[in-house]
Amino acid sequence: MGNDTRGGLLRRHRDFRLLWLGETAGRFGQSVTVLAVPLIAVSTLHADTFEVSLLSAAPWVPWLLIGLPVGVWVDRLRRRQVMFWANIVCFALFASVPVAAWAGVLKVGQLLLVALLAGAATVFFQTAYTAYLPDLVKPEDQAEGNAKLQGSASAAQIVGLGCGGLLIQLAGAANGMLVNTTTFLLATLCLVGIRHREATPERVERPRGAMAKEIREGLGLLFGDPFLRSLALFGAASNLALSGYQSLTVVFLVREIGLSSGTIGSLAMVSGVGGVLGAFVVRRVSARLGTGRSLLMFELVLPALALLIPLAGPGWGLTMVVLAYAGVSIGVVAGNVLKSGFVQSYCPSGVLGRLVASSAFLNYGTMPLGAVLGGALGTWLGLRPALWILTAGVPAAALFLYCSPIRGHRDLPTGQMSVRRPGTDAEADPETDPEADVEPVEAVR
After folding, report:
1. Does residue 252 carry a pLDDT above 70?
2. In a 3-state reduction of DSSP, which class is residue 420?
3. What is the pLDDT of residue 54?
4. Which one, of 402, 438, 403, 399, lies nearest residue 418 by Cα?
5. What confidence tens digit (pLDDT) does each residue in 60-104 have?
6. How far apart are CA 216 and CA 161, in angstroms?
7. Is the N end or the C end of the chain the one with fewer CB atoms within 10 Å?
8. What is the rounded CA–CA span in Å between residue 364 and residue 238?
9. How many CB atoms lie within 10 A of CB 108?
10. Which residue, among 224, 181, 3, has the nearest Cα to 94 in the 3D structure?
């Protein structure tokens, strides 16, 4: 870690700057892919509504299948190496799409397989990435680090979606996937350039069934803490609704309103603008209102604007989409900044990978279910009625936060959670247990 404390984190911390650059490049490419895959399916392969929803679901299915064991593996491995190999796998998978398109053999089945395998690699990357930042920067820099990473990701989406929509319209959706492959290479080079080296995880002889035990410990820690439990349940319900209506949005805009790829890309840029604004204001708002109250405001109020999407129509009716995209993205990005900073400071490093994976298992595991639900409702009821049902689920999910302990506190806890020894009711003793170097939770204002 850099010793210079002057200036912002990007200016004084070389390794964080490389992590930030690589993540920004990756998000730029990802934003092109998010737009390109459903457009390939709808415009080139003539997929139906349910097939498009399966493409939206596929990247999230691995969270249900391998999300929990990955958390255990990440706690046993060097996290930067996990991120490196995950990027290499994604590069190879996404490069296969334009190659197949050039050869004239691209099918919906290949897109599904690429989305599924790339989703598995993302499980490894995201779990390691979340647990890596606290090792890279000092605790007092984590809030700034999370805000900069979230803000730059949203800015990359602005440029990526805008450029992606234009690129896809001019060169074709399959060729637009080439952008994603080059950004994975850049992100990998940035990881290679980071000088900071993690401590080698201690090799421990583990008896048979140790992984299942560690998975249970991670879930037990998650559900045993009222703050973490509330955030996990809210995330699961919210992502179910969000992924449900998002799986229908491109089909809705193309087939119901008649928009072109370029126009859809321009509209999608609004979500990136909202995300940048959310990352920009979150630290100022939380300093004034408190982290707990700010989280409630960002997650309860602004995402409810998703209810405007079913009201969209041609001409001025597109204003509804703009307002909905902006409100949801501001709330989601600002909420993610607050939640990431809280979890990284609240959870001890030795169990962070398991806790992140346990939470992600619930948060991301509902996304394929939501996407499939969206496709089913869109097929049975029609696109607009399905959107009404799914967007109504966004404010309904917020009830998990409103009814949680967070509502009674100005700020989220500022100390580390107490970790109990597995199989006992006693807290680990820091003086006798080297893995129990944690402090009790401080009083919340």
Report:
1. yes
2. strand
3. 84
4. 438
5. 888 888 877 887 777 777 888 888 999 999 899 988 988 888 888
6. 40
7. C
8. 10
9. 18
10. 181
